Amino acid sequence: MSEWRSTNLTRPCDFELSLFPSLNYVLFEKVGRGRWVKLFGFKKGSYIEFVDENKVRFTGFTGDELRAYVGLWYDPLNYVNEVEHRYNEVIEEVINMYRRAGLPIAINDPVITFISAFLNRVTNYHTNVVRWVRTLLKQVNEDITLINEDVLRNVSTSFQLVGLVNALRDFM
Asked: For residues 111 and 63, what is the distance between their CA atoms, to the nearest angstrom?
């Protein structure tokens, strides 16, 4: 494991709140109070630990990668002036209400994000999709090229997995 670094965040952040609705939830697992490990893909095994809502310790990521994964790459307050002035008060109120929530992205894990999105049809994301994606990635040792119909049948027989092989071929 690489050396731990720490940084103050540009705004308060609740990673769990941000990550929960994200397609990138499959990439991380909570391993302690405020501590998360990246399970798959780019910089697998890296850690993020929230000391408090304004300070984070991390290992394995650059500062820009950290901001992307925790969702602080985008600050909606920077765009309030682009909205018609008459809506500013409402927009600012909504932004302040959800100020601790970010928009996590995984720009270096597009295939895993695609799989997560593809499987997320008419099912419970946290009950099924997270389990399917994690099981699938473990079965092929994260080598996406090894995904085939036999592997998928070992993961689940649910209709959501039908067509994934062809969709991946088209995506890649």
From this structure: 23
